[in-house]
DNA sequence: CATCCAGATGCAAATGAGTCGCAAGTATGA
DNA sequence: TCATACTTGCGACTCATTTGCATCTGGATG
């Protein structure tokens, strides 16, 4: 979400030479339409609404392929399952409401900068990072 | 690591009324001696060096119990397996060398503060958070 | 268009970390 | 010393994800 949904994934797939099968077409539509971070089971469910009969193994395989090509991002939040979202134009991190499961995206240039600073201090360069805030509604006060 | 290893876990366990069995004694020793973030398989291996015959299910159960009591912390880095460390006196985050697997601990009050700020901005309070920097040695330049 | 085949799919079986049921063993308080 | 609630070993189980394999097909080619 917070994603202007630049280009449909299907075009990116074509560019990368992926065969566009009926199953993939639907899966890509579902991904493009998603404004959340669904896991494979949920993706498969959404695919099934548009086109029954697509096997969940196909969804798994497609997600792996898309992730390898960098067209989608893979996340694992605290439930331990693989979740996906179309690769965003601009990096963001996640804030997860532990009560509802809702995921909110945010970006802090300040934090990004401090991370770089820390890595540098130890003589490293950052390959990737993960920042997740597990939160609940602030009560009273 | 970076842990003054304040009090052996065994005392904390006694305080909490956990029965001190031979297996637990060894497991706790291994945890106290660890200066890294071993997974259960590795813990079981280390336990086996001191006292063969302890079942890995016992290690799993003990880790769950200790984590429930807050005596140890559970982490899941990018390999997806459960890793443990004695609960540190002071919160820290992790920097993981993707080439070697080495884990370095760091703490940034600055980042901690910014996280709070962000959560607050959205009307939430932080329950927990995860910050992991996956890094590699900075080459040349 | 008809052909061809590398790549894609469905299905079932395999994998692998972690959990659980149960019978047998034991730490600990009385 | 006893009683019993807690632990353990062990194998079976779970469940998300992966994989082997036979079959199918997108899309390049002529
Ligand atoms: Mn996101
Ligand atoms: Mn640590
Ligand atoms: Zn970030
Ligand atoms: Zn932190």
Short précis:
The first copy, chain A, has 141 residues and is an alpha+beta fold. The first copy, chain A, is built from 5 helices and 5 strands. Chain A starts with 8 loop residues before the first helix and ends with a strand.
What does this 3D model show about the protein?
- 2 copies of one chain form a homodimer.
- Chain A has 141 residues and is an alpha+beta fold.
- Helix content of chain A is 40%, strand content 23%.
- The first copy, chain A, has helices at 9-15, 22-33, 40-50, 56-68, 109-121; strands spanning 72-76, 82-86, 93-97, 103-106, 124-137.
- In chain A, the strands form 2 sheets. A 3-stranded mixed sheet of chain A has the order 4-3-5. A two-stranded antiparallel sheet of chain A has the order 1-2.
- In chain A, helix 2 crosses helix 3 (40-50) and helix 3 crosses helix 4.
- The first copy, chain A, is globular, with a radius of gyration of 17 Å.
- Chain A binds chain B through residues 76, 80, 95, 97-98, 104, 106, 108, 110-111, 114-115, 118-120, 122-139, and chain B through 76, 78, 80, 95, 97-98, 104, 106, 108, 110-111, 114-115, 118-120, 122-139.
- The structure holds manganese (II) ion (2 copies) and zinc ion (2 copies).
């Amino acid at each position: 979400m917070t994603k202007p949904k630049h280009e449909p994934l299907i075009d990116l797939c074509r560019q990368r030479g992926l065969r566009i099968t009926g199953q993939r077409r639907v899966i890509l539509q579902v991904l493009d339409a998603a404004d959340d971070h669904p896991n494979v089971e949920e993706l498969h469910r959404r695919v099934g609404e548009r086109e029954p009969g697509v096997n969940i193994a196909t969804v798994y395989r497609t997600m792996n392929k898309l992730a390898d090509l960098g067209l989608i991002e893979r996340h694992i939040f605290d439930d331990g399952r693989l979740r996906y979202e179309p690769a965003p134009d601009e990096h963001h991190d996640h804030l997860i409401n532990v009560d509802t499961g809702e995921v909110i995206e945010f970006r802090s240039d300040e934090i990004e900068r401090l991370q770089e600073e820390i890595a540098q201090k130890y003589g490293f360069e950052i390959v990737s990072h993960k920042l997740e805030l597990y939160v609940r509604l602030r009560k009273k006060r």
